[in-house]
Specification:
Layout (H helix, E strand, L loop, with lengths): L8 H30 L14 H5 L5 E2 L2 E2 H17 L9 H37 L4 H19 L6 H22 L1 H9 L8 E2 L22 H12 L3 E4 L4 H10 L1 H10 L1 E3 L9 H6 L7 E4 L2 E4 L4 H8 L9 E2 L1
Helix pairs in contact: 1-3, 1-5, 3-4, 4-5, 4-6, 8-10, 8-12
């Protein structure tokens, strides 16, 4: 008598596991999509002065075809969830239909997981070398995608391993080329330092000379209508920016506004905390219990570190144009 070989546990539970991971991914990207579409800020833990999740969400790479990238992630994870559970909802009597559906959805899961893993790998490259930020949501999404790929490969007894490699090469190449095409405009604008198709330009600042106590470093960026309108709004509502002239991060904040718009901040919003700075008011900084620079106080709430103009607009209730020229 020949004993039938038992099915490994990973193959028994692969679809529920894939569904669970895809569900977590859908919840994460769904939350980010809602925050992006409503102009909110995602809950994020970041070191003061360092770039975090909201810097990533406000970068030009976070928008694809005019829509939040998180929305496409939500659709991808939802599709993977449906592919995983579809055969499980069929009744046992429909064995032929279920077997056919299982085979079809396994290939859809494989192609989807490969595409998501390749795209996530490129996003990790952008996160590390272009945006230079720490985003736990992005890292979690990349881990979700990789987990889906691993489970899809080991969660089924594939008859032709060679076909898996062939599929991986084709889907991977198509995804990678498509990704480069989607972000071609963004990468070009960063390489040339000029805006392409209205996309914002990334700014960074590394001091090479000593700051001037009167103004710190010279502002080399220019303002558009959006930056000027936001600066006027912040002055109108009584917002305060606590700075020190020698602080490089404070200068990064200036560069985001541009020379013309920051003049309004300089006249009505800025509070100089360095005792030897121009028009210094260290007593106000001490009374406000300022711990680092820059620190914004908007509507009685404090925001530490360089804030993107999107974040300042949301925090202050700004309703004007948001096609800001620069991002950090």
């Amino acid at each position: 008598m020949i004993r039938r070989r038992s099915t490994p546990w990973i193959q028994k539970w692969s679809r529920p596991l894939i569904a669970a991971i895809a569900g977590c991914g859908a919840l994460t990207t769904g939350y980010l999509t809602i925050e992006k579409l409503t102009g909110g800020s995602a809950a994020c833990v970041a070191q003061a002065g360092a770039k975090g999740c909201n810097d990533v969400l406000s970068s030009p790479w976070a928008t694809v075809f005019g829509q939040p990238l998180a929305l496409f992630g939500f659709l991808a994870y939802t599709s993977m969830l449906i592919f995983a559970v579809a055969p499980l909802v069929l009744k046992s009597g429909e064995s032929n239909s279920r077997k056919q559906l299982e085979n079809q959805t396994w290939w859809l899961l494989l192609m989807g997981a490969i595409a998501m893993s390749v795209f996530s790998s490129y996003l990790m490259y952008l996160l590390s070398f272009q945006i230079k930020a720490t985003c736990l949501y992005c890292i979690a999404s990349a881990l979700f995608s990789l987990s889906l790929l691993v489970l899809t490969i080991i969660g089924r007894a594939w008859e032709d391993i060679g076909q898996i490699f062939f599929t991986a090469i084709i889907v991977g190449m198509v995804t990678f080329i498509g990704t480069l095409g989607v972000y071609a405009g963004v990468n070009q604008s960063l390489n040339t330092g000029e805006s392409t198709s209205g996309k914002p330009v990334q700014i960074s600042f590394v001091p090479t000379v000593e700051p001037n106590p009167a103004f710190g470093w010279e502002i080399t960026t220019t303002s558009t209508e959006a930056e000027t309108a936001l600066a006027n709004h912040l002055a109108k509502i009584g917002a305060k920016e606590y700075v020190a002239y020698w602080c490089p991060h404070c200068h990064e904040q200036k560069l985001l506004f541009g020379k013309e718009a920051y003049q309004t901040i300089n006249d009505s919003v800025k509070v100089e905390c360095a005792p030897n700075g121009l028009k210094a008011q260290p007593e106000l900084c001490k009374a406000a219990k300022i711990q680092g620079f820059p620190t914004w106080v908007i509507n009685a709430k404090s925001y530490s570190g360089v804030q993107s103009l999107e974040e300042l607009a949301t925090a202050s209730g700004y309703t004007g144009p948001r096609n800001f020229k620069y991002f950090k």
